[in-house]
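I'll show a record.
***
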Amino acid sequence: MEFNPNGHYYEYEEKSLGLGSQTSQLFALLMLNKLDHYVKEQLHIKYYGRYMDDLYLLSNDIEYLKKCKEKIGIELNKLGLSFNPDKTVITKIHPIQKDNKRKAPFKYLKWNFYIT
């Protein structure tokens, strides 16, 4: 089954999907499936992950990440979606220093990630 943004997936037009329902989770996964393939197959991002509507791309080339962000934004617009400007960032992952001092982490799903 492929996500169709203009399709109807329930019997009554005035009904909607509940946030916690299993069907909502399924449609959240299906909706961005093409984006997953686009990022991996067209943008050739080796380190990419997504959980529902939260995603990350890892690369050593910050300029390429900026181009990817623009291209992904275009693909999201085709689905009627957009980035959240307050949450969408390109950041560096800082290693933990030899003296165990930690700089700003890479945050994903409320978890902090560091290079060790």
